[in-house]
Design goal:
This protein has 825 residues and is of the alpha+beta class. Helix content is 49%, strand content 10%. The strands form four sheets. Strands 5-10-11-8-7-6 form a six-stranded mixed sheet, with no helix packed on it. A three-stranded antiparallel sheet has the order 9-12-13, with no helix packed on it. The protein has a two-stranded antiparallel sheet with strand order 1-2. Its main location: cytoplasm. It is found in: Cytoplasm, Perinuclear region; Cytoplasmic vesicle, Clathrin-coated vesicle membrane; Golgi apparatus; Membrane, Clathrin-coated pit. One of its GO terms (molecular function) is small GTPase binding.
């Protein structure tokens, strides 16, 4: 049989192939020749054939038939054969195939070989693909080589030990004696791998971490090595862009971060060296930036001095000026994580952060936007909103929804005046009205209603905003509502804040009729416009007949909602005309109920101020059950309490059926599961605890600290915590405040929390503070649950969580049975 072609010739031949089919044909032909050679047990060219097979494997072609040939090469006495055999084993074998166990004896023999290079091959292979069985069998040999004086073998043995610990953590203590002298080695390769080994041991075992902190005094040794690296002169062997062994420096900084976390003594010992690294490292090259970034992470993670933290944030501020996009992104992400703990230091770089909003890279824009909102407070609200509104004008569509939502929340929290608040919201609706959340319209309407002195100014601004432009539907809806409520102020020209405009009643009706017939108007917008026209029948005097005509026309509309409204309004004109003025009178001031307990300390980005409890008595008389009452039988049996609603919902009436899924498809009524028959709506009177003591005395005992909080749910980065308060006036009432936080790198949107309790309890679930759980634990959603427990029974609760994360809809159920006794006894 002729000698097979060399690897170099094979590579040259394959590269001449012009098509994929031609390349496949060459590979298949060569594979056939290699198989024939293997069958003939050709020892002369086995090494060459396996090398060619590995090249084909790297190109993506199957090479599994060469696995046993690799084992034969490993058993050979020639170093060249062993080298190709071990390389083939690392590429073609893994612990899922039983064939790899046949190597154990060969590796054991080679670990005890007289040639260091053969020992190195065996260590590399074991550290690459050794299974847990192999690691148990060969850990003793690895530990012996870790104590040898040969630096070439020690560095490879240290890395192999890392793999052994990952596969069999209980063997960790075997390597502990060998680690004592590793950091005294002069060889940088041994030092580097030793730090990797120590890092792995500290991360995997709290006991090892405590041992290295106290007994081994590891921190002073690492500080000494790092100081020598910084102060040493030029060393050609380890120099990278003028910095001595940056890879070792980065590894040491990571290990210092682990050792200093939550430990005062260790943190104190490394403060000085961290300051030296931060001030002495050259930043003109990317190598220096990598070391500085690791230094910043270490400073932020340990219990460092305040001056050192400011230095770290200033380094990140310099990163923001770097031309490299990756460095700017890393800086923004790091600042976003630290803004809650070192707010004032981050504020100093506000102008640089805002400049990043103009960056061309979308990922940098998003991080800059999130950080900008985190920096907003009462002192800089005007300047920051000006920049963010400018960003909203020019940003890509995928940013507009998040930016508009952030502006709404910031304006509600820090608005310096009601006029500024209204102007800001209107600017957002004008710019990005199609992207705002569903609650933007009712929230702005409530804000306008409560700003009595701004009614004339607001209705005039809104009238101007929608002249000839109906593209932003939320803006048109708010404008229609305001014109219907305050149309008389618009026509009378009573605006004092700006120059009044002269508008006639017919011109106002022309605008509303244009909204009704516009192709851009949605059904909801037309409903707003028709209701506004009807309201104007009590505010205008000379156009009542025109209003009657418009209303009667829509009595035959194909839109059922519009038709129903028009028919009812026609009845008001005819049969109930004496009641029309009373029914259509101006809306009273709307009160907004806070959802964070009696007195919430509002996080104000560097400021704290108490937010007083606002309470709104429930309407008197019988209350209809809401869709939340579909939570029946969540905890088994038929003794489940209905949930008392606190506010009307905008969801369709059938939405409550979704809650039936909490325990699967439960047939509660005996009817077929596909068409559940709604039960008769009972008359539910509000429990007395909702009204008790709102006027004369505090609602809650000041004993919150006495009731321990609990973690009700923690999974996939979402954490739900319960804190408790007890009512002063009614000891049977427990007020539970939930806090939802998100430790992942992306926001969780459309977050909904639902709860159910047995019927011996009564439960009231108030509105949440938001529907977005911010990423990186930069904020929380809060929601209040009130539970009436007259029989003082142990609390039980089942919760359902739904949200969107990373483009996927998530849903989960959980039971909470670990309520502290103080919360219910």
């Amino acid at each position: 049989m002729p000698a097979p072609i060399r690897l170099r010739e094979l590579i040259r031949t394959i590269r001449t192939a012009r098509t994929q089919a031609e390349e496949r044909e060459m590979i298949q032909k060569e594979c056939a020749a290699i198989r024939s050679s293997f069958r003939e047990e050709d020892n002369t060219y086995r090494c060459r054939n396996v090398a060619k097979l590995l090249y084909m494997h790297m190109l993506g072609y199957p090479a599994h038939f060469g696995q046993l040939e690799c084992l034969k090469l490993i058993a050979s006495q020639k170093f060249t054969d062993k080298r190709i055999g071990y390389l083939g084993a690392m590429l073609l074998l893994d612990e899922r195939q039983d064939v790899h166990l046949l190597m154990t004896n060969c590796i054991k023999n080679d670990l005890n070989h007289s040639t260091q290079f053969v020992q190195g091959l065996a260590l590399c292979t074991l550290g690459c693909m050794g299974s847990s069985e192999m690691c148990r069998d060969l850990a003793g040999e690895v530990e012996k080589l870790l104590k040898t004086s040969n630096s070439y073998l020690r560095k490879k043995a240290a890395l192999c030990a890392v793999h052994v610990i990952r596969k069999v953590p209980e063997l960790m203590e075997m390597f502990l004696p060998a680690t004592k002298n590793l950091l005294n080695e002069k060889n940088h390769g041994v030092l580097h791998t030793s730090v990797v080994l120590l890092t792995e041991m500290c991360e995997r075992s709290p006991d090892m971490l405590a041992h290295f902190r106290k007994n081994e005094k590891l921190v002073p040794q690492l500080v000494r090595i790092l100081k020598n690296l910084i102060m040493s002169g030029y060393s050609p062997e380890h120099d990278v862009s003028g910095i001595s062994d940056p890879f070792l420096q980065v590894r040491i900084l990571r290990l210092l971060r682990i050792l200093g976390r939550n430990d005062d003594d260790s943190s104190e010992a490394m403060n000085d060296i961290l300051a030296q690294v931060a001030t002495n490292t050259e930043t003109s090259k990317n190598v220096g930036n990598a070391i500085l970034y690791e230094t910043v992470l270490t400073i932020m993670d340990i219990k460092s001095e305040s001056g050192l933290r400011v230095l770290a944030i200033n380094i990140l501020g310099r990163f923001l000026l770097n031309n490299d996009k990756n460095i700017r992104y890393v800086a923004l992400t790091s600042l976003l994580k630290t803004v809650q703990t070192d707010h004032n230091a981050v504020q100093r770089h506000r102008s640089t952060i805002v400049d990043c909003l103009k960056d061309l890279d979308v990922s940098i824009k998003r991080r800059a936007m999130e950080l900008s909102f985190a920096l907003v407070n009462g002192n800089n609200i005007r300047g920051m909103m000006k920049e963010l509104l400018y960003f909203l004008d020019s940003c890509e569509p995928e940013f507009k929804a998040d930016c508009a939502s952030g502006i709404f929340l910031a304006a509600e929290k820090y608005a310096p005046s009601k006029r500024w608040h209204i102007d800001t919201i209107m600017r957002v609706l004008t710019t990005a009205g199609s992207y705002v959340r569903d609650d933007a319209v009712p929230n702005l309407i409530q804000l306008i209603t409560n700003s009595v002195e701004m009614h004339a100014y607001t209705v005039q601004r809104l009238y101007k905003a929608i002249l000839g432009d109906y593209s932003q539907q939320p803006l048109v809806q708010v404008a229609a509502w305001c014109i219907g409520e305050y149309g008389d102020l618009l026509v009378s020209g009573q605006c004092e804040e700006e120059e009044p405009i002269q508008v006639t009643e017919d011109e106002v009706l022309d605008i509303l009729e244009s909204v009704l017939i516009s192709n851009m108007s949605t059904s909801v917008t037309r409903g707003y416009a028709l209701t506004a026209i009807m309201k104007l029948s009590t505010r205008f005097t000379s156009t009542v007949n025109r209003i009657k005509k418009v209303v009667s026309i829509y009595g035959s509309s194909i839109d059922v909602e519009l038709q129903q409204r028009a028919v009812e309004y026609n009845a008001l004109f005819k049969k109930y005309d004496h009641m029309r003025s009373a029914l259509l009178e101006r809306m009273p001031v709307m009160e907004k109920v806070t959802t964070n307990g009696p007195t919430e300390i509002v996080q104000t980005n560097g400021e704290t101020e108490p937010a007083p409890l606002e309470t709104k008595p429930p309407p008197s008389g019988p209350q209809p059950t809401s869709q939340a009452n579909d939570l029946l039988d969540l905890l088994g049996g038929n003794d489940i309490t209905p949930v008392i609603p606190t506010a009307p919902t905008s969801k369709p009436a059938s939405a409550g059926g979704e809650l039936l899924d909490l325990l699967g498809d439960i047939n509660l009524t005996g009817a077929p599961a596909t068409a559940p028959t709604p039960a008769p709506v009972p008359q539910i009177s509000q429990p007395s605890f909702l009204l008790d003591g709102l006027s004369s005395q505090p609602l809650f005992n000041d004993i919150t600290a006495g009731i321990p909080s609990i973690t009700a749910y923690s999974k996939n980065g979402l954490k739900i915590e319960f804190t408790f308060e007890r009512s002063n006036t009614n000891p049977s009432v427990t007020v539970i405040t939930i806090q939802a936080s998100n430790s992942t790198e992306l926001d969780m949107t459309d977050f909904v929390f639902q709860a159910a309790v047995p019927k011996t309890f009564q439960l009231q679930l108030l509105s949440p503070s938001s529907s977005i759980v911010p990423a990186f634990n930069t904020g929380t959603i809060t929601q209040v649950i009130k539970v009436l427990n007259p029989q003082k029974q142990q609390l039980r609760m089942r919760i359902k969580l739904t949200y969107n994360h990373k483009g996927s809809a998530m849903q989960d159920l959980a039971e909470v049975n670990n309520f502290p006794p103080q919360s219910w006894q």
